[in-house]
Amino acid sequence: MTNNEASIKRARPKRIGLKDVALEAGVDVSTVSRILGGRASLYAEETCRKVQDAAAALHYRPNATARGMATGSTRMVGVTIPGTGYCGRIIEGINKALLEHGHLMLHAWNPDHFVPADDPTQKRIIHELVERQVDGVILRVGSEEFEQTYFEEIWQRGIPMIVVDREMALFKTDFVGTDDVAIGADAARHLLGLGHRRLLFVGEKEIVSTCRLREQGFRDVVSEAPDAACRKVELDLETAVVEDLAPALEGEGHPTGVFCYSDRMVPIFYETARKLGLDIPGDISVVGCGNLSWGKMLAPALSTFEQHPEKIGRKAAELYLERVAEGEQARPAPKIIRVAAELMVRGSTARV
Amino acid sequence: MTNNEASIKRARPKRIGLKDVALEAGVDVSTVSRILGGRASLYAEETCRKVQDAAAALHYRPNATARGMATGSTRMVGVTIPGTGYCGRIIEGINKALLEHGHLMLHAWNPDHFVPADDPTQKRIIHELVERQVDGVILRVGSEEFEQTYFEEIWQRGIPMIVVDREMALFKTDFVGTDDVAIGADAARHLLGLGHRRLLFVGEKEIVSTCRLREQGFRDVVSEAPDAACRKVELDLETAVVEDLAPALEGEGHPTGVFCYSDRMVPIFYETARKLGLDIPGDISVVGCGNLSWGKMLAPALSTFEQHPEKIGRKAAELYLERVAEGEQARPAPKIIRVAAELMVRGSTARV
DNA sequence: CTGAAAGCGCTTACAG
DNA sequence: CTGAAAGCGCTTACAG
């Protein structure tokens, strides 16, 4: 089974091309191209057989680069999304959906956080993607705060752009994400339903749409409960320490129901609660968002929202494929797709 | 700042090519190609200026697809590695190193676990990568148990292959990973140093090199301590339940020092210990490997090895670049690079 | 049912 | 110091 011959001859052999197959089969390259390219029905059965046999015998693989030049489509999508954790699962979804349609991801990380508008690395990434003639780009912005002008090059050239997870203010693009307002609303309903009336929203200093919209949904619902009130604290995750959060949790009349807009705020929350001697969920309930892998290993396990990131990735890929299929015509109005999230109730939330 | 014009005219404009720049500058395309391609020193200063001005005015971006056809190098590496967690950090390292050299990842997931030798999806992925003329492939195998024959296509064509993280038995390729034997040995030394003599190695049923080599390093060191003994249990992570591990931890003379070859075995270990009423680290110490993100949030925080996956990815990318630079000559002997891991001592290990 | 030819957008000997 | 031409490996009107 182990191929020892192969491990000896190592010089790279000349690649087999359409020409070689044509020669072997005794036909023209255009004939081979059409038969192997799905137009076999045009040809005599025997010609098809000869060509297929020759291609198989020579282990022919088409050169997608050359095909891309000829057809104008590389069947590659540029993906600028950080690859770990939650985003990694989005990418997994993209990858699977694309593969079923013969497309591949040209994957260039971009940071999870704020990047200056003219960051040279980001510009480089965009240049690289454009130069490689990607059919479209699926991207995620680090922050809403500063406009991501380095994406302008893509937009100007009319290359389809699908934004995922966080909204982008600069261009009116297609978007696939989670239903953030609904998440905020559901978090509020869950806490109110458990009897909590003194609520706290834990947001992030960095301005991202997910935080803004979840707060909006949360407040909308809280404001409908006449006896409930919502406070708010914003953390800078890069630097956050217990002292940043403690004032919001201390003293008489401290909040008993907390919504951390992202699971990423939860570890510092647990730590602060412990330091203050607050029992979760005895003294204070907390619900997060994202269903990150470690949430169920916390003590108590975290109540949080599963956002189905693979599904988000899959939808983004499908939208990209749709845009590519539309071709060069004037682009239609942007589509906004929001995938519903689900609250996973675990041990961190309880009756007041 | 917001470009409203751009959001109105959406039809895709014709791409600007070398020809357009040449026309604009009043020179031949070959002149433009050479000046923009780094051979500017050949030309008169004024010609260079004219060409550069024209390129800038037209926002010219070279077509990497066409360049790839002409030069035989696409400056793309195929990456078949799952993208989440630990592997995601490898990919991050690859990505950063490549970007500095103008290469990009064509990223196709492959599963973390065992895949049958002739899995059609895997074969498809390899075909796609080969067709797109990648300059090389960085890959990780799911399991050592069955030979990954779907990689044969790459090997046969002499495309550089860099294997990361887990060794591959089928081909003698370049490899970049962690120093697994040293990790096993260090884990044993740590536990022995804390006075533990009844040791347990927790491995995985699936046959991967990391597990095999860590066990080897662990046993080598344990066997040198005359009064120490090592037992072993193997779990199938897909199905593992408390009952699978409990027998190894129960009863008089149960092990007091445990090495879980991967952090992935740790949650089931904590759960089992809790069910059996064993205090960590009071009754039993445990050390993991991988420094996965949630380890420090466990109670107690997990002692584990940081493997520096970004560094592994970076080294793999550098090795790939080296192989590409060597060109089509007969390939030299494979290189094996092992990045040292570091034990992070936290709360899960203590004196016996 | 099949072939000859042009073209995709570059690079690179070769010539001058 | 610069240009004209061939070639990379395909696809696709066009012709027969």
From TrEMBL, chains A, B:
Q: Which InterPro entries match?
A: HTH_LacI (IPR000843), LacI/GalR-like_sensor (IPR046335), Lambda_DNA-bd_dom_sf (IPR010982), Peripla_BP_I (IPR028082)
Coiled coil feature spans: none
Q: Which SMART domains match?
A: HTH_LACI
Question: What Pfam families does the database record attribute to this sequence?
Answer: LacI, Peripla_BP_3
Which residue intervals define the domain HTH lacI-type in the entry? 16-71
The answer to keyword NADP applying to this record is no
For this UniProt record, the keywords arranged alphabetically read as follows:
DNA-binding, Transcription, Transcription regulation
Cite the GO molecular-function annotations of the record: DNA-binding transcription factor activity; transcription cis-regulatory region binding
Q: What is the name listed in the Swiss-Prot or TrEMBL entry for this protein?
A: HTH-type transcriptional regulator DegA
Q: What organism does the UniProt record list as the source?
A: Pontiella sulfatireligans
**Species classification:** Bacteria, Pseudomonadati, Kiritimatiellota, Kiritimatiellia, Kiritimatiellales
The UniProt gene name for this protein comes to degA
